[in-house]
């Protein structure tokens, strides 16, 4: 149940500086910023984040994707979102441990990843502003096999509209699953959505180096679920969808 979850009223209400402390700066060097009697909310308002999250991993599970993306895209802030409390705590403890292990390095390793407990089917636009993200990962979403459970899938026409809102034109939704039916479901919903075009596989498979290829390679090999599928010699279905420019008003 997610009754205990709290949602920010808007992205500006998020404590980004708390999630990415190495990327936070004091807004003003004022007397107030040294005032220990400030409430948490008041002291938060004095800190700003120097850049925005640009990659979201929806239903990040145990965070394998985050930990693999972190060193590969060190200048990008990456956020994992996960609904299960214990799993979110595991990921956040691991991030804290990795940060302190690397605390002496100048590279600020693992300061670019964070995890947040949330039901991403609700209020995604409360977390991110319009066009904020360049990549959204949907890795091995729960398949919810039964017909009457399909509404629990994290892809639907409505959710595709929310992903389109937070994704910038040119940005990409990356999907992977070992369940053929779910793959076809995701492809169906994104393909019929006017804000998305499927990315041709030549762009992410085969020879050559690019960020998109690197992200797909990591997505195929580094998530916990992906590793499980690998061990069981299962098949992995990948599909990418590019956010297109909004059509001009008639
Ligand atoms: N992406 C990870 C991977 O590839 O290893 C985890 C895959 S696991 C099968 C699906 C994850 O999505 C679970 O950890 C589950 O708790 C999470 N999840 C399901 N529905 C969610 C929701 N509405 N909001 C956030 N997380 C959700």
UniProtKB/TrEMBL annotation:
<keyword id="KW-0694">RNA-binding</keyword>
<keyword id="KW-0819">tRNA processing</keyword>
<dbReference type="GO" id="GO:0106143">
    <property type="term" value="C:tRNA (m7G46) methyltransferase complex"/>
</dbReference>
<keyword id="KW-0820">tRNA-binding</keyword>
<comment type="subunit">
    <text>Forms a complex with TRM82.</text>
</comment>
<dbReference type="InterPro" id="IPR003358">
    <property type="entry name" value="tRNA_(Gua-N-7)_MeTrfase_Trmb"/>
</dbReference>
<dbReference type="InterPro" id="IPR025763">
    <property type="entry name" value="Trm8_euk"/>
</dbReference>
<keyword id="KW-0489">Methyltransferase</keyword>
<protein>
    <recommendedName>
        <fullName>tRNA (guanine-N(7)-)-methyltransferase</fullName>
        <ecNumber>2.1.1.33</ecNumber>
    </recommendedName>
</protein>
<feature type="binding site">
    <location>
        <begin position="82"/>
        <end position="83"/>
    </location>
    <ligand>
        <name>S-adenosyl-L-methionine</name>
    </ligand>
</feature>
<dbReference type="Pfam" id="PF02390">
    <property type="entry name" value="Methyltransf_4"/>
</dbReference>
<comment type="function">
    <text>Catalyzes the formation of N(7)-methylguanine at position 46 (m7G46) in tRNA.</text>
</comment>
<dbReference type="GO" id="GO:0000049">
    <property type="term" value="F:tRNA binding"/>
</dbReference>
<feature type="binding site">
    <location>
        <position position="139"/>
    </location>
    <ligand>
        <name>S-adenosyl-L-methionine</name>
    </ligand>
</feature>
<keyword id="KW-0949">S-adenosyl-L-methionine</keyword>
<dbReference type="InterPro" id="IPR029063">
    <property type="entry name" value="SAM-dependent_MTases_sf"/>
</dbReference>
<feature type="binding site">
    <location>
        <begin position="119"/>
        <end position="120"/>
    </location>
    <ligand>
        <name>S-adenosyl-L-methionine</name>
    </ligand>
</feature>
<keyword id="KW-0808">Transferase</keyword>
<dbReference type="GO" id="GO:0008176">
    <property type="term" value="F:tRNA (guanine(46)-N7)-methyltransferase activity"/>
</dbReference>
<comment type="similarity">
    <text>Belongs to the class I-like SAM-binding methyltransferase superfamily. TrmB family.</text>
</comment>
<feature type="binding site">
    <location>
        <position position="59"/>
    </location>
    <ligand>
        <name>S-adenosyl-L-methionine</name>
    </ligand>
</feature>
<keyword id="KW-0539">Nucleus</keyword>
<comment type="pathway">
    <text>tRNA modification; N(7)-methylguanine-tRNA biosynthesis.</text>
</comment>
<dbReference type="GO" id="GO:0005634">
    <property type="term" value="C:nucleus"/>
</dbReference>
<feature type="active site">
    <location>
        <position position="142"/>
    </location>
</feature>
<feature type="binding site">
    <location>
        <begin position="223"/>
        <end position="225"/>
    </location>
    <ligand>
        <name>S-adenosyl-L-methionine</name>
    </ligand>
</feature>
